[in-house]
């Protein structure tokens, strides 16, 4: 993919700087299985857990403070931020 883990952290915080399209999706349910997988198999940089897949060109990022899931797709230059809401 040609980016470092610290670049992914910066990209999640400021997607507009590198020309990525940001989409926010609110969900009533949590992504517990995927979030747990990222935390168990990913790398922690400050308050972010990051797990990347070179084959799909995607990185899954979990914010440790909010437990929100972010998927960065480098092929499509999109970032999808899943925010859990409490009803």
From TrEMBL:
It comes from the Archaea. It comes from Saccharolobus shibatae. This is Uncharacterized protein.
């Amino acid at each position: 993919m040609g980016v470092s883990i610290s670049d992914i952290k910066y990209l999640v915080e400021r997607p507009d700087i590198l020309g990525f399209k940001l989409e926010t999706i609110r969900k009533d349910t949590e992504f517990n299985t995927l979030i747990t997988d990222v935390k168990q198999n990913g790398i922690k940089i400050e308050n972010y857990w990051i797990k990347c897949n070179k084959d799909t060109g995607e990185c899954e990022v979990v914010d440790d403070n909010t437990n929100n899931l972010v998927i960065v797709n480098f092929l499509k230059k999109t970032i999808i931020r899943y925010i859990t809401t409490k009803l």
